[in-house]
């Protein structure tokens, strides 16, 4: 028997052993002959390109080609006219790759490769395998591919709804963690990282994770020094399937097994040599997607809030949000209070966090799972991309942009060296066995204006996005092939270069359409599991450490913890103009009530959040507002006109952290416009307190308390066409939801004409001003019958029932009044032309003159000076010892615009000048 035949026999034996042992690998280490794997891969690549040739007719010319070319990252990834053989396309793409790599800084001399490529081209199509092997060699010459070791996990496809990702009781058992070395050599080594690792602490102390044969992994990150990894692991995976196995009517029985500590994912860290395996999180909650921060903390996704999704009312689908902890697992705090699902956090090159959020507030479920950014402490969460696809209005008016962009974008990571470009996976909300959180590779460029369709997204391959189960994708996809490439967890290596998993392999993928094999996890070690979270095992540049400006956990009682505030510069700054003559008088501040695990209410509003009106705040004549902010809640705002009707409502959620000073420009303002110059009226005074109406049935909203007495008395007989004033199951389902954003003047009472009915006879005389206010408010708030998801009889009888999540009946508004906010009167100044010292205030003298800020501290206390943009970003800060002076020169360092200077000291808060840098 020849050596080659013997190897084949051994391979079969190892495969049988691997398949019969499920999660216990038959081998701890294995050597791979890279040439043999490359040869196998080239056959698959030849077939892939042939499929592209066969499917290229849809975009060969005309409108089809115009549509596809517009959305490709590089047209070399397409099949060009006249290319009828895979060899021709491969040679063309390899030449483009060679030219691009040769121009990269620090690349080695590739003259030999260029000569060889020319020889292969001249030799003809019989040299396809040689051309593919050479192309891989060129791809690995990319300086960004200098790493020789990769770490990854393997896992079976979850094959389910986005809500199931990372739930231990839903995850399929199996998989492992592997260290792959020798990427640039002819012999690649694959090592099982967990085979000898022993847990150092917690309930599993003294045990190896490989002892638990029903375990699974999900999520992996490498610290910036390349010496520590973090990952999520569950001991008893896949106890139940997700559909029909844990209905809400079974609560709390189903959570006994669904959220047993053994059936939940927990986060571990380990040194890359397999030592110091440490369990960081424990308990009856799932913790996944760990991400190391520059400040030494770890951000992760957790379902600790006890919320679940609002669709599929008979199912149990927990939601996860962003949390943070120290590297030792201490000081665990939430940094997001979003009420639906967030996934896949990573750190941008500027130090900000980027992640996927499912935005599902009074809107369609399908196409708003996109890129969000926030500070590492959770501040200032924003959606710079894709959050308002068409149709904006119910009924689908306008271009249906849902079909012309990815449904879901996951695994989002910043491209090295860029502050605006990202790679991501385009997949689906519902998922299936082939897609789940895998799909097509795309790039996202925030430097391109968002057209609510595909302007910011580009495709790596001429492949249609995976369709949802109930609707198809749009015009461009009609010209493309429909196979699902099932890419997973991209790691960007440069602009147009990515490492990603596909099946049991990892590949280098580039914008020219090349797909080059890097490594495989052989079935002898772990049978047929997908390569996930492949990460270079090397030190990498650390992004800047952005200051923590919230006051949670260990920072909660810091001396400089001030009451959280929220400010709006000009509410009229909207990319959809308000109706002519509109005058906004107030801002309603609602709390959105998440659906708790024990939810059993299956009537209307079903998929709509409960809500409480925490209070209203004034909007000044210039459109500005400044008020004490409710903290640690999902918030929802409505701009209210002089008639008391909502003109515009949010279709998203905001939240404010303890001590956060959150600012925004307007109401869905144009992101491409600078902060308007001026001196907002609201910023010249102390922040407004919220004016609540705790006795009228709006906090919490109750049909029986808010409007039923009116409709049973003076308002008896009040009817509105196509509307229901009974708090029943119809509500305003089709009136004020299902589009992706509200249209000014077409929401709530304005949308159905209730305002014109109530302000005309006979109702104008029959109803009091308070009656009218209540009716308008209730209709604007989506005609909610209940707020709490229990004790319905008590609510129907007019009793007050508070929701049992994120609500303190003693302080429903949730503002931090206990910290006080005594501001002795803000001073309006100009950085550029203020001539002299400002008045002395509480021992601090501030001078702002000719582009400089001078602060004289003649007290016996340490003071802190902070300069903010109106969006709340700190652009300058300094500490000043007693009896000291400091001067900061700001000209030529800051953009023109509006800034806020705040000075604090342990004994109180100083005045806050609003400044204009001209």
Q: How would you describe the overall organization of this protein?
A:
The protein has 918 residues and is an alpha+beta fold. 15% of the residues lie in helices and 25% in strands. The chain has 14 helices and 42 strands. The strands form 11 sheets. Strands 34, 37, 38, 40, 41 and 42 form a 6-stranded mixed beta sheet that branches. The radius of gyration is 30 Å and the shape is globular. The N and C termini lie far apart (85 Å). Residues 1-25, 601-605, 722-736, 820-842 and 908-912 have low confidence and may be disordered.
List the helices and strands and how they pair.
Elements: H1 3-20, E1 29-33, H2 34-55, H3 62-71, H4 86-102, H5 111-123, H6 128-140, E2 149-155, E3 177-181, E4 187-192, E5 216-222, E6 228-234, H7 253-258, E7 266-271, E8 278-279, E9 287-292, E10 297-302, E11 307-308, E12 321-326, E13 333-334, E14 342-347, E15 353-358, E16 369-374, E17 408-414, E18 421-427, E19 440-445, E20 457-459, E21 488-494, E22 497-502, E23 505-510, E24 515-520, E25 530-536, E26 565-568, E27 584-593, E28 595-596, E29 610-618, E30 625-628, E31 635-641, E32 646-649, E33 661-664, H8 703-706, H9 708-711, H10 748-752, H11 754-758, H12 763-766, H13 769-780, H14 792-796, E34 828-830, E35 844-849, E36 852-857, E37 863-869, E38 874-880, E39 884-889, E40 897-905, E41 908-909, E42 914-917
Parallel strand pairs: 26-33, 34-42
Antiparallel strand pairs: 1-4, 2-3, 2-25, 3-4, 5-6, 6-7, 7-8, 9-10, 10-12, 11-28, 12-13, 14-15, 15-16, 17-18, 18-19, 19-20, 21-22, 22-23, 23-24, 26-30, 27-29, 27-31, 31-32, 35-36, 36-39, 37-38, 37-40, 40-41, 40-42
